[in-house]
Specification:
It is a single chain. The protein has one domain: Mitochondrial carrier domain (Mitochondrial carrier fold), CATH 1.50.40.10. It is an all-alpha fold. It contains eleven helices and two strands. The protein has a two-stranded parallel ribbon.
């Protein structure tokens, strides 16, 4: 089959699928508000992306928080050690809390991004309608979703940080391993943290989170939309193209803001009095950065970035691609008014 025939067949199949999808949407989803569809699309995208990379996320947190017995290991060694002490399910420890968080987080993130972008386009026409709008809307959406779901992020970190030897093997003699977990699930974490320090304790580490999420979320959406504008029109609906643009966008944004994520993780696992790891005390984000450099070395600011590169590529790619595909399936109209190829 030559290339023209292949292209024609692909177009026909796509048209058939799109026609079927539209029919189902008219039957079941036609009366659903657009913002509800955006919440659904964002939630599904976030849940799939987070679950796909959960084992890598667990290892990254152990490295960032300098958990004894892990911070000097490689990815494969860390995974093997978790399998040895906690079994296969140990690779997904904290993922339940992560999913409970990521569904509302991603849903709010994508939905508010669309809402903010629409508001900017309607009220600030002088700014134009290019990817710069995605930068502003993405930053505002990132801050909104992070604030709304932050306690769940803190709980996820605390659950993933603790390594419990459920198989009764302490041959390595690592003091950080406990015979019983300190927390019995998400509810226990939130209740315990609240009793220790109230609402303020539930938001420990939110400073570096907001400092990092505003540029990261903005840059991620900006890069994704900007990259898509350089893709030939005939390839703009390609899944491979969306995967590539999403991966590059996530990689770029994460690199610039990664040290702030390290500060956040160390603040999250510290106690209410000292917010400490290794006898350090972080009064704020800047103090956290300088204290880590002074006491743990500048390399600690990038602890786990290698695994983060491995993680962020499939995570961002799956997230953006799933969101675009869900928007097409749910028949969500594009908010962009001009040249941006937001979504099919």
């Amino acid at each position: 089959m030559d290339s023209s025939q292949g292209s024609t067949l692909s177009t026909n199949v796509t048209g058939l699928v799109d026609s079927s999808s539209v029919h189902r949407d008219v039957c079941h989803l036609g009366s659903m508000p657009v913002y509800v569809k955006e919440l659904i699309a964002g939630g599904v995208a976030g849940a799939l992306a987070k679950t796909a990379v959960a084992p890598l996320e667990r290892v990254k947190i152990l490295w960032q928080t300098r958990t004894e017995g892990f911070h000097s290991l490689g990815v494969r060694q860390s995974v093997n050690k978790l399998l040895k002490h906690e079994g296969f399910l140990g690779l997904y420890k904290g993922n339940g809390a992560s999913i409970i968080r990521i569904i509302p987080y991603a849903a709010l993130h994508f939905m508010t991004y669309e809402q903010y972008k629409c508001w900017i386009l309607d009220n600030c026409p002088s700014l134009g309608s290019g990817p710069f709008i995605d930068l502003l809307a993405g930053s505002a959406a990132g801050g909104t979703s992070a604030l709304c779901t932050y306690p769940l992020d803190l709980a996820r970190t605390k659950l993933a940080y603790e390594v419990v030897d459920v198989r009764g093997s302490f041959k390595d003699g690592m003091k950080s391993f406990h015979p019983r977990p300190a927390y019995n699930g998400l509810k226990d974490v939130l209740t315990s943290v609240y009793k220790e320090g109230g609402v303020r304790a539930l938001y420990r580490g939110v400073g570096p989170t907001l400092t990092g999420i505003l540029p990261y979320a903005g840059l991620k959406f900006y890069m994704y939309e900007e990259l898509k504008t350089h893709v030939p029109e005939e390839h703009q609906k390609s899944i491979v193209m969306r995967l590539a643009c999403g991966a590059l966008a996530g990689l770029f944004g994460q690199t610039l803001t990664y040290p702030l994520d390290v500060v956040k993780r160390q603040m999250q696992v510290g106690n209410p009095q000292s917010s400490s790891i290794g006898n350090t005390s972080f009064r704020n984000t800047f103090d956290g950065l300088t204290t880590i450099v002074r006491n743990q070395g500048w390399r600690q600011l990038f602890a786990g970035i290698s695994i983060n590169y491995i993680r962020i590529v499939p995570s961002a790619a799956i997230s953006f691609t799933t969101y675009d595909m869900m928007k097409a399936w749910l028949c969500i109209p594009p908010r962009q008014k001009s040249q941006s190829v937001s979504a099919a």
